[in-house]
Structures are given as C-alpha cells and as structure tokens.
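Predict the assembly for these two chains.
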Amino acid sequence: MDSTSISNQTANVQPPLMPPAPVKGTIKTGFLADLFSRFVAALSIVVNPGNLLRSRLETFSWPWAMSVSGIAFFLFFLQTGLDLYRADAAGTGRVSLLAITGIVYGTAGVAFIGAVAWTLTRAIGGSRPVDWVIRAFALSYSPALIYGLLGLAANVLMGWNTAMAFGITGALWAIGPMTATIREVVGDKPWASLAIATFCGGLILFGWAWVSRL
Amino acid sequence: MSTTTSERGKETGEANGRSRLAAILVCFAAMGWLIGRSYSESVFHQVLLVVLGTAVGFAGIFLYTRVLFIFNASVQQQHGSSAIKQTVLTGFIMLIPFTILATAAEIWLVWNAVIAFVSAGIMLSGVAVSAELVKLGKQGWRSTAVPAFAAGLFAMFWISIVSLVQLILRS
C-alpha cells in the first residue's frame, strides 16, 4: 500500500460523533429561512413543473401542500371581504367568515377538486394515486399565495379593491401547473390535459364567485 | 419506404401545427371580442377588435418564434427546421383554458377581467414553451428564462395595442 492510498483512506474516514461537515455553498438556516427555501422550491411548479412533479413532490408533506393553497385562498377571500367592507356591503363579521371560508375552500375544496381531477384521469388511463394529484394541485396555488400577499398589501395600504385584480390572477396562474400535473398523470395527451384543467380551474374559480356571494 | 414514413410524419406534424395555430388565433379573436363587447355595443367596434386581436396575436406569435429562433438555434439544428415553431404552437394551446374561462366569466358573471385572463394565458403559454424546449433536451436560461420573459413582452404588446385601439374607439 503506497502513501497516496493511505492518505485517501484517511481522508474518507469521519469521526463517528462529529456533526456532518457543512457542504460548501450552504448556509446555516433558521426556521423562516427553511420555510422560505421550501416555498421557493414549491414555486418551481410554475417554472419547471416536470422536475418538481417527477422527482420532488414526495418531499412535500400533505399538511405543507394543503397549507399553501389554504393560505392562498384565505388571503383571496379576505381581500374579497375587505372589498365588500369598503363598499359597505359587509361588516367585520362577514369579512371574518369569508376569511375562514377561504381556509376551508383552499384545503377541503382544493382536495375535492383534486379528487375530481384524479377520477377523470383514471378514466383516460392515469395511474398516479389520488394523494399525489391533490398535493400537486395544492402546490399549484403557490403563485396565488404571492399574489394574495401583494394584493393584501395593496388592499390595506393603498385602499385598492384587489380581489379581482390580484385574487383572480393568482387563481388563474394555478391552471398552468394543474395542466402539467394532469399531463404527467395521463402521459402525452395535451388536449385531454387541457380539458380536465379547464374544468377543474373553472370549478375553483367560479366556485369562489358562488361562495363569496353566500 | 422510410422516406415515405418520415414524409407522412412531417405532413401530420404540419397538419397538427396548422390546427394548433388556428386554435390559438381563435383564442386571440375571442379575447378581442370579449374586450370589445365589454366596452361597446357597436358591432363594428367588436368586429374591429376581433380582427385586431387576431392580427396582433399572429404578429406576436411570429415575433415570439423569431426570438426563440435567435436564442435557440441549436434546437433547430438538432431537431429540424420546424422544431421551434412546433414547440411554440404546442405551448400556446395553453391559451385555450383561459379563453374558455374568460368567456364564461364575461358572459355569465360580467367580471370585466379579460386582461387578467390574457396576461396569465400568454405568460403561462411562455412557461409551457420553455417546458417543451426542456423536453427537447435544451437546458439553461436560453430555454427557460427567454421564453418566459419574451411571453411577458408578448402579453404587454397584445394588451397595449388592443387597449389603445379600444380607448381610441371609445373617445
């Protein structure tokens, strides 16, 4: 055994109780930074849906995925309530009720629509499990969450009516990732993917219009 | 024999491309009509905005394809002369859901929000184009950032021209 191979072996041995050495380029992060980096990863469902759906969707737990759509719709419905409040069409009680409805709509509602989409994909040869489709649908609302935050800021700070401008736009941005999800489930069937995504996107969008009028 | 098969494949691809282009132009025409009808009851104004929406959409698709040709010349070399064109037409059929939903929102719910549908539709079509380019094995900012950024400019181009003409017609 020459001296080079011995030094290579020595370099590969790690003391058992030592913490793993930090990888070059990573930063020690706190909870918020970790949350932010996971959200940025979730946001990649818009720019590169194939990569996230094929290899990283499993890293997002159910509660994490549903909280993305839950918070997005909470903000959307809250803005709807604030717009109505400004127009003297709702009191603080109704605004609060709408915000809570948003959480339910963004979690149970999105899960239901995901299940509807899964049922439709099964009819045309889809093979992914229902929880996979629901998680992907929930993460599709990550751009809506950003629009929701920006819209709420504009609503509160500048007094704008933002439910249509920011809320609807955010909800529309989910249609792209939803189409990519369905395409991933059913294979290369673009027309079928578009039809199912249009149906499901329409259910969610017009469901908001119906629920917010109640 | 193989030449005949590849020729048939090419013909089928061109036929698909034509039907996709027709579907995309119908989407732009419908968006123009929706903007026209939300501001004017005049049939002339609505027809003018249908024609304008289609023409600006066609010009936008042409310019968008040229931009991708410039930044992704290697795709054309590897996959043939019509690869970029097919990629753009496949990506832009993403406009269909937005057109259907915009029509439903305008006619049944009277939302007056066609611009939101147009901008989201064109920009997400750009994202779909970049996904198609990645599928062809093209990685990097030229295939991901350029199609999305160019789609943003396309959306601004279409909305600005159609809104400007609609404002002139109203005044």
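Chain A has a mean pLDDT of 86. The interface with chain B takes residues 46-50, 164-165, 168-169, 172-173, 175-176, 179-180, 190, 194, 197-198, 201-202, 205-206, 209 of chain A (CB under 8 Å).
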